[in-house]
Design a protein that fits this description.
9 helices, about 325 residues, single chain, globular
C-alpha cells in the first residue's frame, strides 16, 4: 500500500491526506475506511459502493465537460472532511459495515458503464480521495476502454498522492467550501491551504479539466466571495468555471436556513463583475445563471434549465456566432 509510513510498535501513519493519521493496530483513520491491519494500511471499502446511478454530467456539476452526456456515478463510505453541513451525511458520517454495501469490483463498474453507453465514470457521493485505490484502479481500466473519468472531491489530499490521482482523472469538480481558514477549521475540521494547493496543482500542472463549487451558507462562507474570486483570478485565471450552489439544512446544520436566491445572485454578480468568465448558480432552477455565455461576444452558447440542456450553439467547441473557442472539453 502506498502513502503510508511504518512506525514503531506496529503503528502506521497514513500519508494520503493532510490529516496524516497515526494508527495503532486495527485502528481506523478519521475517514473510518482506512485501517491499520498488522502494520499495513488497508482500504476496508475496496470493491464496495453505496450504489450505481446514471446521471447527466451537469449534476456533478460539470458544465464544460461533454455537456448532456451520461455518466455512471458511484461512491463508498466515509470522508476525510468533517463538514457539519454535509449534504450526504448518511453515507459519509454514519459508520456501518462495508459489507452492507453493494459489492462491485472495478471490472464490474466498467462493464456497467459500457452496457449503458456512459461517456464517463464519476467518483462522487463521498470523496474519492479516501477510496483512492478503488478509484484509481477503476480509472486505469476506464482509460483502457476509452471511458472518461470524473472526480468530485474536496481536494483534501497530500501533494505526492495528488500527482497520481489527477493523472488518471479527465475532469474534476473540486469543492472549495469557503475562502476562510476559520470556516474550514470550525465547520470542516480541516484547513484551507491544502485545498488551495490541490486546486492550483490540478489546474496548472495536469491535463485534468477543473470546475469549482462553493456551497454558500449565509452568515458563514458567503462573506468571502470577493476574496475567493481574487484568488481564482490571480492563481488560476478567468476561465475556470465556478458554481455557487444553495445550501439546504442537513446533518448538524439543520437549524440553519436554506440559502436565499438573492445570496446566490449576489455571489454570481460579484464574480462576473470581477472578471470570471464562467459563473453559475446551483441547487436552484434559474435559466439565466445556468447558461454558458461566450466569453467573446456574450451570446448564450449552452442554455440550461437545471440539468437539462435546452439549446446548444457550439460548433466543434466554438461559438457559432463569433467563432471563439469555449474553454472545456466538447
Amino acid at each position: 500500500m502506498k502513502y503510508q509510513k511504518i512506525l514503531k510498535n506496529n503503528k502506521t501513519q497514513c500519508t494520503l491526506c493532510p490529516r496524516n493519521c497515526i494508527l495503532a493496530p486495527y485502528q481506523s483513520g478519521f475517514c473510518y475506511v482506512r485501517s491499520n491491519h498488522n502494520g499495513q494500511i488497508i482500504l476496508d471499502s475496496y470493491g464496495y459502493n453505496t450504489g450505481l446511478a446514471i446521471d447527466p454530467v451537469e449534476k456533478k456539476p460539470l458544465y464544460h465537460f461533454y455537456p448532456s452526456s451520461d455518466v455512471l456515478s458511484f461512491g463508498t463510505l466515509g470522508c476525510n472532511m468533517g463538514c457539519q453541513f454535509c449534504q450526504n451525511w448518511q453515507t459519509t458520517k454514519v459508520k456501518y459495515p462495508v459489507e452492507q454495501c453493494q459489492p462491485a469490483p472495478p471490472e464490474a463498474i466498467i462493464n456497467t458503464a459500457k452496457e449503458n453507453n456512459c461517456k464517463a465514470v464519476a467518483f462522487t457521493y463521498n470523496d474519492p480521495i479516501i477510496f483512492y485505490e478503488y478509484a484509481l484502479e477503476t480509472a486505469r481500466l476506464c482509460r483502457e476502454e476509452g471511458i472518461k473519468t470524473i472526480a468530485v472531491t474536496s481536494g483534501y489530499i497530500n501533494p505526492e498522492p495528488a500527482k497520481e490521482f489527477f493523472k488518471y482523472m479527465d475532469a474534476a469538480n473540486i469543492d472549495l467550501k469557503g475562502f476562510s481558514e476559520d470556516f474550514y477549521r470550525k465547520n470542516c475540521f480541516a484547513h484551507l491551504q491544502p485545498v488551495l494547493d490541490t486546486i492550483k496543482y490540478a489546474v496548472k500542472e495536469t491535463k485534468c479539466f477543473v470546475e469549482l463549487t462553493t456551497m454558500l451558507i449565509e452568515g458563514e462562507n458567503d462573506l468571502y466571495v470577493e476574496q475567493e474570486c481574487d484568488w481564482i483570478l490571480e492563481n488560476l485565471g478567468d476561465y475556470v468555471p465556478i458554481h455557487f450552489s444553495a445550501f439546504y439544512p442537513r446533518y448538524n446544520f439543520k437549524d440553519r436556513k436554506p440559502t436565499k436566491l438573492e445570496t446566490l445572485m449576489k455571489a454570481y454578480n460579484t464574480a462576473k463583475k470581477m472578471g470570471l468568465k464562467y459563473v453559475y448558480t446551483g441547487n436552484v432552477s434559474d435559466i439565466e445563471t445556468s447558461t454558458t455565455y461566450c466569453k467573446n461576444c456574450g451570446k448564450p452558447l449552452l442554455k440550461r434549465d437545471g440539468y437539462s440542456l435546452l439549446e446548444n450553439n457550439l460548433e466543434n467547441g466554438n461559438c457559432k456566432f463569433c467563432g471563439a473557442k469555449l474553454d472545456g472539453c466538447f
